[in-house]
Amino acid sequence: EIISTLNLRYQSPSRDMLSNTLIPAWYAVEKENVEKELQDVRDVAVTADGWTSIAQDHYLTVSVHYVREGSMKEKVLHTRA
């Protein structure tokens, strides 16, 4: 509603467009970016974090941590229910 108030011609994407087209395309680009960035990294730390949602769903997230150009970086590699 806020966006359509700012621009009356804007139409938000449908749920199908988001889940079948936009999110998979974004995921593919981000996955490639992470792979490229990690190619130049010599040392990494991999962590696994288990957590439970308010709805009592259990999740496991695997992340990678590394230093690049003097800055600490972190990327989530995967989350699974």
From TrEMBL:
PANTHER family reported for this sequence: ZINC FINGER BED DOMAIN-CONTAINING PROTEIN 1-LIKE (PTHR46481:SF9), ZINC FINGER BED DOMAIN-CONTAINING PROTEIN 4 (PTHR46481)
Name used for this protein in its record: Uncharacterized protein
Organism in which the protein naturally occurs: Cirrhinus mrigala
